Amino acid sequence: MKTIIRTLAICCITGLAAGCKKTFIQLAPVSNANAENFYKTKDDFDLAVAAAYNSLYTIYAPEGAVSYASEQMSDNAIVYNISGIEADKWAFKDYNLKPANTMVYQFWQDFYKALFNINIVLSKIDDADLSATYKTGVTAEMKFLRGLYYFDMVRLWGELPVVTTPLTGAESYGVLRSPQADVYNLITSDVKFAIDNLPLASAITVKGKASKGAAETLLGEVYLAQGNKASATTVLQDVYNSTQYQLLPTYASVWGPTVKNTKESIFEIQCIGGSATTPYSKYYQGFFPNTNIFVFYGGGMNQVTDDLYNEYESSDPRRDITIALGYQNGATFVNQKYTKKWTDAGAAINGGNSLAGNNFMVYRYADLLLMLSEATGDAKYLNEVRTRASLPLYGTASYPSAQYGTLALAIEHERRVELALEFHRWFDLKRTGRAVTVLAAKGKNINADKLLLPIPAIVRTQNDKITQNTGY
Amino acid sequence: MVEIKIANDQNSAIMKLETVFFKQAFALCWLSLILFLPSRAQETGKLPSKTITVTGRLTDEKGDPLPGISVQLKNGQVMAISDHAGLYKASVSADAVLVFTSVDFAAQEIAVNGQAVWNIVLKRQTKELDDVVVIGYGTQKKKAVTGAVVSIGYNQFKDRSFANITQSLAGAVPGVNITQPQGAPGQPPVIRVRGVSSITAGTNPLFVVDGVPLENFNLNMINPQDIESVEVLKDASSAAIYGSRGANGVFIITTKLGKAGKSIVSVNYEYGVQKVTRKVDMMDAQQWIQYYIDAKNNAWVDLGGGHQASDPNSARTSIYKIPDDFLTNPGQFGKGTDWQDVMFRTAPSNNVQFSVSGGSEKTQFLFSGAYLGQQAVLDRNYYNRLTLRSNVRHKVSDKLTIGLYTAITGIVDRTEGTQGKSDVISLGLQSDPIFPVYNENGNLGYRDPNSTWFKYTAYGDLNLWHPYSLTRFIDKKNKSFNTLTSAFVEYNIIKELKFRSSISANLANGKGDSYLYKNQGYGYSSLLNSQASTSANYMLNWLIENMLTYDKHIGDHSFNLLAGYTTQKQRDESSGATAAGFPNDLVPTLNAGTTYSGVSSFATEWSMISYLARLNYNFNNRYYLSAAIRRDGSSRFGENNKWGYFPSASAGWIVSDETFMRRVKVIDFLKLRVSLGVAGNNQIPNYGAIGLLGASNANYASMATLLNGQTILNIANKDLRWEKTTQFNVGIDMRLLNNRVTLSAEFYNSITKDMLLNVPIPDITGFNTQLTNIGRMRNRGFELNLSTKNITGKTFSWTTDINFSRNRNTVLQLGPGNAPIIYTDYVVNVKTEVGKPISNFYGYVFDGVFKNQAEIDRMPHDASTKPGDPIVRDASRDGKITDDDRTTIGNYQPDFTAGLINTVSYKGIELSFMLQGSYGGEITNQNVRYLGWWNNGRNMFEDVANRWRSEAQPGDGKHFRATVANTGLMSQYSSYWVEDASFLRVKNVRISYTLPARILAKTPLKNTRVYINAENVYLFSKYTNYDPENTTYNATSYSAGSNGLAPSGINAPSGAFIGVDYGSYPLPRVITFGIKTDF
């Protein structure tokens, strides 16, 4: 009996002792790291910087914000059947957006999530015990991305809550929409910092990271959007003269799953195909017509309009490189135009997904040349682009000047066909002030107010001090 | 409520029903009067001729003194009450007849006959009030319970056929709303004790199995036939002993143990049949083809440019084309295929149970084994379960007792159709009726390139997700194994002081495998390559408890003191992988694949330390007091708030034992209860307080190099703590009219504060939400339980149980500025705002259909509106149709629920039937998104055939026109999706027959019963889909294993969408034939 009591006593005392330790209820997460101890070493920052770059996959996704605005809201593309909430997706092409549109809200979240991943790096790096060179380099990369995103956002929504540091929930209620000029000031100062501190493309060891040329091209477009052609000229000329970039010999050679980071590329989103666990390319599948007849599901995004198809001059080789007329279904050919710029027909397929490898260029040299013509009024750069396409040069007799009688119209036309479906068209029309004219003529239910998206309803439910854009 | 009491009273003859009801009603009215009026009954009896003083001692059969026994004259006049030593003294006439009465003892009469000393031994009555009720960390007599505790004994669910005990309790327990979201075998019900107490945190109650508290435990792991009783702790005072886990209510499950005496061998066999009896009315091929043609033509004409409905395909662009066969010879499709008939079948089940129980004074045991083999109504689905149990308790010495309870359960199942929108059942409804079950090549679908049906693949809006392509061309199997074991020692240090120590463990392992055959018989919406996936999980939960209890009686005072200390820890692990690129379908395991994805493993832990103490006190078995406190420390909470206190107090008063009540003969028992307590809710993610880093969606690439990334997943909150629910409860328990009427009523008011809320914060932070303690919510309600013994004859008896519950849920406070919270999932919005119940359905109101253009012009409308489109109500009355016109269009929570059980028995035959009703709730039929208007050519609800076709054919005024390009907000979430969820269900009908003893006398069999049990017998409901209890979203839970549709919306808790049905599994009717015999 005594032994039993003793055993019992021991059991319960050890039980008590084991439990009493305060550490018993202080458990560290097993499968995630604790953010508390992060942002200290170079390795930490390399990881955080990759996460910031990762947001490019979302912002420039086939169904991302930039895609919807630039192509769906333009005359280049349309969607028919598309999975998800069709009404909210159709609203872009129909200019029938409402504040409660779920896609608009998704885009809003995407951008600010991306900005958080940038701002957290910027806010932590100053205090990190790392070399000044590394810190400046990382800061410049982050500011380039931040400038790029705010430029997209200001063109989508106009006035914006400007966030430059990680905010707590409580702090965020005090951040209201700033005038567009303030947003542009931030963009300009961020991108200028990037220009001053980023290496030339040729000096970049990790391909795909932001370069000085990328930042200059961005700043050039920012200046153009503000109507500042003089400043745009300076900065774009600098890229032109840097000898870092050139046009590839043919238009066809610009495209393909293995064509990566060429001399034509100025800023390029990086993808790795063939594996479901790496960031594979979603453009091929996303832009394929919405059909289930293949082993992957076509996304049905940005289906090409006849209007775009007809924009090409009849001898323009770029048309058939850009647009597929349809697809084969057994013995039947289904007519539905889609873009084949990012086609990777041989890509491995996993679980209904095509694991394609194509990168996506945010800026390429042809774009820069056309912007340079726009900034300088000099057709020389435009004609470099036409030369590659083996088309009559602007200013020559065989140029279709009946249709494109001014340099501005010639640039508009050239940008549309050269950069078709590369997420530029609607921004270009907005920049040149031609959006309402051009799109209304094509039957879009558009007016000046509709050149900005609504502020999502939920944003204003949470903070009623946030104003709405006119017309919503 | 099967219990039969053979009353030996005078009115044993069978009375007419009317008389009984009349009497009861009258008695109730009268009772309410006397409850509130002081007793003024006056006795005017003649004075006795000669008075003597009678004294004596009252004892029970063990010789223990009995205090509080009333000594009365025959006329009810109380002459004395026995004191704590059982002594009494009364002056009465020498020829008086004295009656000794008490609730707990059989009344006894003596004729004084001049004798001055009468020592009486009273016989204890075994009444329900003496039943022992299991409460947290102990037991109590039912009479002594001062909180809101409901006890359900084995007899009340013995013949029911559910695999999960809580399913058998649905509709029977007031204040406990148990609904069955899906009808697949093994699907757990959604349980809400006294309303829903949280917006973001989990809402499942705590399950305590043989003393082991288990969060989010799968009760399918416990064989219901092994269960002795289930106690539900409804109010915060009784649940507070479980501290930070008690706020959602507590279910205490106690398994059986044998009794001293001859061993009982019990064998039970059941054969069951399940059948879907209520189908969704879908269009047949002809109706659907008409719809398809209309939708294409209307949209084509809408395009303008002189388009005509008569334009041939050659003139139309692709999405407006119509298959020629639809126009030229639709008759060839006949009525087409009813895909519900294809996927559902009449499914049998077999259930075999075997148990041996018994023991001696020193040792008691129960060994049991059961095997349930159940096919599901859904093709190729099944649920097989083996449970084994061994409960042993042994008295080593007078002071020392040890015990070991072990249950092992294995479940092998295949369960599909519960994931809603893209799962078998929903897809079956969406599939177009024109396609045959098999094509001419014996394949399933039109994607077979060698079939004449292949031509239809040219149309992107013809749909077939053949049920067999998912059930027969994907192999699936889940295996789960669970061991729950608990060992204890009890040691009586001194007579009154007992020490108990226990160690328990719950170990769960599971594995799931699936293999998808290449092309799936051409029956699926696309031709997929073969793919295999596997997943495994492991969970270990251990618990050490040390308890001291001290029992003391001093005179009329009784004390029971409890002090305890417990530690508990759980670790969950899971892993999975998917492989593709199989060369052929010969080998289904992952090794045969060539590309791999979704390869991961994951682990998570929580731990808890608790101290608890409770005092139960009673005076004279009449006044009861209970006070308890628990202190919990949990790993889940923030650095600054690891520990919390959960106090409670309650009191009870047995009014009927008071002198002034003794003469109120109609009342046999009356107890008043009041309680106040604080319980917590800790159901949040294990690391909710910590800012976590994650690597998913954080990597970048450079050429062929992967650049690893990491990012912050959530905002840390060092102050995070549990939700606290403070609940006040008053209750009354009564027995009337010679115990023939039992009434129990409760009122409660409960306030949850510091809600664990994933507060939506402005997205400009980079996050949608932050887990914070903020906000308050109220649940207030009333519960009533009335049991009557209408007829209590020796051979014939009839009892009725009625229960009624009403709960009102109101949000009192939310995050900053009380900003409402709107969650959206697949078009459906739910909105939570201050002053209203949580999760109101939020959308447009449709007021019918525009008949013509003139009507459109007269009213505010969306710019895209055409005749035949819905009339959208201008709820904001600003003359425009905008987002602001969205308003509250319903809520899932019912106004009240009620249950009615009638049990009639005649000799060995017992018949019982149960009705269950719910009134005043709404349900969102999310299938409307697919089946209520054009959504890429899916099949439609049959009602849509009554749509607007033209001004001359306006249809039923509810269903708008067909068009492939939706206009006029027809595709928005609106009142068109919301239906009345009120229902009345014949929930259960049972007939059993106990074979007479004389027949069995010559056999070794004792106690043999045969029975038929029918569940879900008939449903009265107007709901379009299968069942108004259906919801595709489960209660919020942060543990693994939730089997419902997870909201796609970021950070939306699934519980916010309870009451939204996106193609759920129907609840079948189940009829079971059983025989049970003891040796």
* Average pLDDT for all residues of chain A: 92
Largest sheet features of chain B? 22 strands, antiparallel, barrel
Proportion of residues in helical segments of chain B: under 10%
Shape of chain A: globular
How many DSSP E strands of chain B? 53
Distance between the termini of chain A: 84 Å
Structural class of chain B: mainly beta
Number of helices of chain B: 11
Amino- and carboxy-terminal Cα gap of chain B: 26 Å
What proportion of the residues of chain B form beta strands (DSSP E)?
Answer: 35-45%
CATH topology tier name of the domain at 2-197 and 433-462 in chain A: Serine Threonine Protein Phosphatase 5, Tetratricopeptide repeat
Roughly what fraction of the amino acids of chain A lie in strands?
5-15%
Descriptive account of the structure:
Chain A is mostly helical. In chain A, 47% of the residues lie in helices and 8% in strands. The N and C termini of chain A lie far apart (84 Å). In chain A, 51% of the residues are buried. In chain B, the strands form twelve sheets. Chain B has a 22-stranded antiparallel barrel. Chain B has a five-stranded mixed β-sheet with strand order 10-15-16-13-14. A four-stranded antiparallel β-sheet of chain B has the order 3-2-5-6, with no helix packed on it. The model of chain B is unreliable at 1-48 (pLDDT under 50). The chains are: A mainly alpha (472), B mainly beta (1079). Chains A and B meet through helix 1, strand 1, helix 2, helix 4 and helix 5 of A and strand 24, strand 25, strand 26, strand 30 and strand 31 of B. Strand 1 of chain A pairs antiparallel with strand 30 (692-694) of chain B.
